[in-house]
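ok new one. same drill as before - structure tokens go in, u give me an amino acid for every spot. 313 of them this time. try not to just spam alanines like last time pls lmao
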């Protein structure tokens, strides 16, 4: 897989979805967990509750005889909130449906136990794990993967091709992997995973949680900001907008970078529907990782404080 987008696309294309079918997703989703379904069938979007989490009751109400799959992110790339994937899995399986999990944001911050998550499919991108771009993973149970028709046919995925071009597919996983893969990127992904495991996923989690708590405390001293990341357990990120409408998120991000040496991201973060749900044209997102320090958090605070005092000038 080249990443989460291709992995989800393989599942969406391989299930043979029809226009009369529907897939239930959450309002938190990245475009990559919306558009592959939308181009093939109807998508039912589950709204968020007061805690910023997709409503399980609404998800259950959205399921009917035409529902083919549930798909949900494990961690929002906008608000950072962690979703209780096991609850979604229980709901899906209670209705005899598979669950796909977008773990792109989760992978670098938490260990992933696919059996514990009880998901049928799980997708992630290597570059989120500090691996080469263009690497990624599609996990699936054997039964779930066997449901998929191959997206591509060619060398490597077949046992035999006859003179009349009838063919016999190989077993998993090769039947879904036509052609020569990006071997170098796959090796790089393996090395990146080993690197993170050497640091220790528990140590990474503890360090990032401490940084997130510090970030929350420092941003709370800045009354000129609207905070859009829920207080619930979430990844080490914070998404905000300035109460002063003249301080657009893109402007704030540029000044933080050019003047204070702090890299953030501004815009819709490939999640237009979520921003529309929140009533926001764009947001500013600060993301932390295991390599960040308390000094980084304080530099961000100081930059935001200076901008809020100065206004758009």
């Amino acid at each position: 897989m080249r990443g989460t987008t291709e992995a989800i696309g393989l599942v969406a294309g391989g299930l043979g979805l029809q226009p009369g079918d529907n897939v239930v997703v959450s309002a938190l989703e990245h475009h990559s967990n919306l558009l592959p379904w939308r181009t093939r069938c109807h998508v039912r979007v589950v709204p968020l509750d007061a805690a910023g989490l997709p409503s399980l009751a609404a998800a259950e109400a959205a399921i009917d005889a035409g529902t083919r799959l549930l798909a949900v992110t494990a961690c929002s790339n906008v608000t950072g909130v962690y979703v209780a994937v096991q609850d979604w899995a229980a709901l899906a399986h209670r209705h005899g449906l598979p669950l796909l999990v977008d773990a792109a944001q989760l992978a670098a911050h938490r260990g992933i136990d696919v059996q514990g998550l009880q998901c049928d499919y799980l997708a992630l991108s290597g570059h989120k794990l500090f691996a080469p771009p263009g690497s990624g993973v599609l996990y699936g149970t054997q039964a779930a993967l066997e449901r998929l028709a191959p997206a591509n046919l060619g060398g490597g995925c077949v046992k035999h091709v006859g003179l009349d071009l009838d063919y016999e597919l190989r077993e998993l996983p090769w039947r879904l992997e036509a052609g020569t893969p990006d071997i170098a990127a796959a090796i790089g992904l393996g090395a990146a995973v080993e690197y993170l495991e050497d640091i220790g996923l528990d140590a990474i989690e503890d360090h990032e949680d401490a940084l997130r708590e510090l970030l929350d405390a420092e941003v709370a001293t800045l009354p000129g900001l609207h905070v859009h990341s829920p207080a619930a357990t979430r990844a080490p990120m914070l998404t905000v907008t300035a109460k002063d409408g003249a301080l657009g998120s893109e402007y704030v991000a540029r000044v933080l970078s050019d003047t204070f040496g702090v890299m953030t991201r501004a815009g819709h973060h490939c999640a237009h529907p979520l921003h529309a749900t929140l009533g926001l044209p764009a947001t500013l997102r600060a993301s932390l990782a295991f390599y960040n320090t308390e000094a980084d958090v304080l530099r961000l605070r100081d930059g935001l404080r200076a901008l809020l005092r100065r206004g758009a000038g």
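The chain has two domains: 4-156+166-197, 200-308. and btw The two ends are 47 Å apart (CA to CA).
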